[in-house]
Amino acid sequence: MTYKAYDCSSYTIHTIKTDKFKTCQMEIIFRKPINKATLPMDALLVDVLTETSQKYPTRKEVIERFEELYRTSCWGVVNRIGNVLLTNFITNFISPVYINEDDYLENVLSLPFEMILNPNALNDEFEEKNFKICQKRNIVDAKSILDDSFRLSIQKSLELVDSPTSYNLIGTPEDIAKITPSSLYQQYKKLLKENTCDIFLIGNIDMDEAVKIIKKYFKKRVINKEKLESMVNNEIRKKELVKSDKSKFIQTNLNILYNITNLTDYEKDIVFNLYNFILGSGGMISKLYQEIREKKSYCYEITSMYLKNDQLLLIHIALDNKNSKNAIKLTKKIIKDMMQGKFTIDDIETAKKSFNLALNLALDNEVTILNNYVFHVFENLPLIEDRLDLINKCTKEDIMKVAKKIKINAIYALEGKDEN
Amino acid sequence: MKEIVIKGLDEKIYEHETPEGLKIYIWQNTKLKGSYMTLSVPYGSIHTHFKVNNKTYKVPNGTAHFLEHIKFNVDKNTTAHDLFKACGGEPNAFTTYKFTSYIVYALDNTKENLEVLLDYVYTPYFTKSIVAKEKGIIVEEANSAMDDAYAMSYFDFQRQIFHKYNYRNLITGEPNDINSITIDDVTNVFNSFYHPANMFLVVTGNVNPYEIVKITEENLSQKEFKEFVKPKIISVKEEKSVVKKHQELEKDITAAEFKYALKIPRSKFKKFNDKELRVYLYLFNQINFGMTSNLKETLREKELITNFNSSFNFTDDYVILNISSLTDYPKEVEKAIDEKLQNLEIPEKDFNRKRKAEIANLILRYENITDVNESIQNNLIIYGKVIDNVKEIYENLSITKMEEIAKLITMENKATLIIKPIKK
A-B interface: how many C-beta pairs under 8 angstroms? Predict the structure, then answer.
């Protein structure tokens, strides 16, 4: 596997050459500081741009083109990494090694640029029909959070911290309804002007040839190399905030939120992951799972989520409302036990083995390898091989140190009706 | 050991049967780092009524899934997770309508992980207290599924299509089913179905096939198994008609949903072999109801739908065309589907483009250890063997045959369901 970066002035192309996989993936990633006011437009924009284009003005024509290119797929997504918004255009295609057509690579690599640079628009307005279809879809999606107890409870919990952590990426139905074909086009112009851009490409491809093709189709760019700071400094409360809402659901969705303070890079990238595994993300062998699910039978779903760039830890339990108080009490006790070092060397070794397995399995998948390079480039995350070394060096003292760096922020319950 | 050559795809699968009757299938890929092992039994949520040696058993809905959960207990103080911890494997399990699978991802320690998998699955440890403890957990799992209104509308529709089939019921069972499961139920199921001669082991990834066979044979030879008596699943006779032709429900949801189904007896397609039929219907669906179909494009252009999905599903006796859409205009969508079904067409250009794309994509199916493993498991459950000529089937497809199949898709047994948000 060989990594190489090509500086193309206004953007950088990062290539990872490997013959391990039959498919290839290209991700064109635009980045900018997150802005709550424009989020619904950012989310709708990526949808509209990948729905149709000037050359393929109907969805049917777009999909037919994908099929002609042996079921290439091309889609867009927005993601928040702390304070930074990523607008990502992804293209997945069969390696040219398996396709006996001279212009195949050029055809697939040029496709996302056709969609980004030549949108289905006229006179600074997106074509109305496709715009309306995408807008309606996003409105339905935004409303659907009310049908999903997990999503709704997480959103409501994060709203308790007043920072980019709480921003709803897709926006409210009302926000989306206010967007017009022309206001969205103005936002589109900013995408090309105000974002930094990096392109990641992985697969069994002649990378010099691929770079030539990308440069041929991606010229109209403004140089923007703004340094982006992703970490969100969420305020620490003197006393935990407790809030609950009634809901239409059977189960109660209970979320307990903790601030994580002053982690070093090593703690942030390595140690806290091991701590979180032992605490709650390690599935059936985690402390939360063992104590709250296995010993007490309070729940089926229980996990802890490390929101690294938000410097938060979120514990989620879906359970019968009558067990909520006991589950909170037990969770607090387990957090305290972790601070006091009440976990064994065996727990740490299990966590290390599990990460060893997960990271090595990640090397069996081109998308996870690509994503690791994305975070290596953007966030200085050590590469998989280096992370494996660092994980193996981690000690009980290291984990106890981060266990003491968390402080409760809020408890939120989306209360169920417990019909059973 | 037998080698099954997957024709035209430059892939092979090793097949072997142990003296105890366990069938082993292995796909080796030395470029990868990990391996994925699944030990499966063709006993799933729909198999609630069966007969062994003239004795008939009837177990509550959800028993297969319940057994999957408590199977992880090895003794009073040990679970399979504790055993896998020592060898760095990542275990899990799942239950479907038709089978239950115990799985483990491993990196190294192939021998230890495989031995733990065989040891815990074949060693029963069921106690009343384990059964009682697990009920609370599984009731919460069922509650979580029941909180998903759209997932539940799937079962509302299954109950509208099927009179008796267990496809009507949640795989977990509902809380009252779960609470009625006894230690005798799970023990009877285990004793009847969990025998090597009734199961299969599929291993995919960076493994040595000969080593896998050796480890398995050595392990099983140290265990005692009674002589296997094949249980007979007592199947129900499902009527040709749907339960209700049309139904309207109101639910506390945000987007209205429309469901449409045709229930077609499989006997109508008897001149086609099963695999060929599935491939034809898959492509037929893509052409007439898929992303590039005129029907979908028209509904989209008229802004009648937010989404639109369709598939063919198979039961023992029926082929079901299932269409589902988020729409505020169910009547218009229904009319458009009806018209399409009365005027089916197979444009040659679409047929050839889709067939070409599918053939190219067949090579991609042999890349990911999980996907290859699942594909082998599905082959074994559906056809009882690994299908080695999929590429040939695609290459030999003909429009004439597809047109012949299209004529058999008729609308006598149609069901529609409209789910509207409750007006507040």
Answer: 147
Contacts of A293 in chain B (CB under 8 A): 137
Cβ A251–B357 below 8 Å, yes or no?
no
The alpha carbon of B18 is separated from its chain's Cα centroid by a whole number of angstroms, namely 26
Chain-wide mean pLDDT for chain A?
95
pLDDT tens for B240-296 read: 999 999 999 999 999 999 999 999 999 999 999 999 999 999 999 999 999 999 999
Search chain B and give the residue with CA nearest A18: B31
Residue found by looking up tokens 């924009």 in the block:
A45
Q: Is B21 helix (H, G, I), strand (E, B) or coil?
A: coil
Q: pLDDT per residue over A71-112, tens digit each?
A: 999 999 999 999 999 999 999 999 999 988 989 999 999 999
Query: What is the spatial distance between Cα B210 and Cα A331, in angstroms, rounded to a whole number?
Result: 47
Pairwise CA distance, residues A241 & A257, whole Å:
10
Q: Domains plus CATH for chain B?
A: 2-233 (3.30.830.10), 246-421 (3.30.830.10)
> What torsion, rounded to 10 degrees, do the Cα atoms A255, A258, A259, A265 define?
-100
Give CATH for domain A241-415. Answer: 3.30.830.10
Q: How far apart are CA B414 and CA B344, in angstroms?
A: 17
- Chain A partners within 8 Å of B105 (Cβ): 357, 361
Of A71, A140, A361, the CB nearest to B105: A361
Nearest-angstrom CA–CA distance, B412 and B240: 9
- Minimum CA–CA partner of B147 in chain A: A249
B338-355 in b/e form (b: 16+ CB < 10 A) is eebbeeeebeeebbebbb
Q: Which residue's entry shows tokens 């296997």?
A: B228
Angle, helices B274-289/B369-383, rounded to nearest 10 degrees = 120
Name residues whose C-beta falls within 8 Å of residue A307's C-beta, 6 or more positions apart in sequence.
A165, A313, A314
Selection from B272, B60, B84 nearest residue B177 by Cα: B60
Specify the CATH number for A2-217; select among 2.40.420.20, 3.30.830.10, 3.40.140.10, 3.30.750.24: 3.30.830.10
Task: Say how many CA atoms lie within 13 Å of A237 toward its Cβ.
Answer: 15
Q: Is residue B368's pLDDT more than 80?
A: yes
Minimal C-alpha gap between B61 and chain A (Å): 17
User: Would you say the C-alpha torsion A361, B121, A298, A151 has a positive or negative sign?
Assistant: positive
For B121, the token pair is: 């699955």
Q: In the prediction, which pLDDT does A364 show?
A: 94
The maximal CA–CA distance of chain B, rounded, in angstroms, is 67
Report residue B49: phi and psi, to 5°: -135, 120
Judged by CB atoms closer than 8 Å, whether chains meet at B81 and A354 is answered as no
- Which ranges in chain A are annotated with CATH 3.30.830.10? 2-217, 241-415
Interchain CB distance below 8 Å, B301 and A98: no
Determine, for residues A60 and B292 on separate chains, whether the beta-carbon distance falls below 8 Å. yes
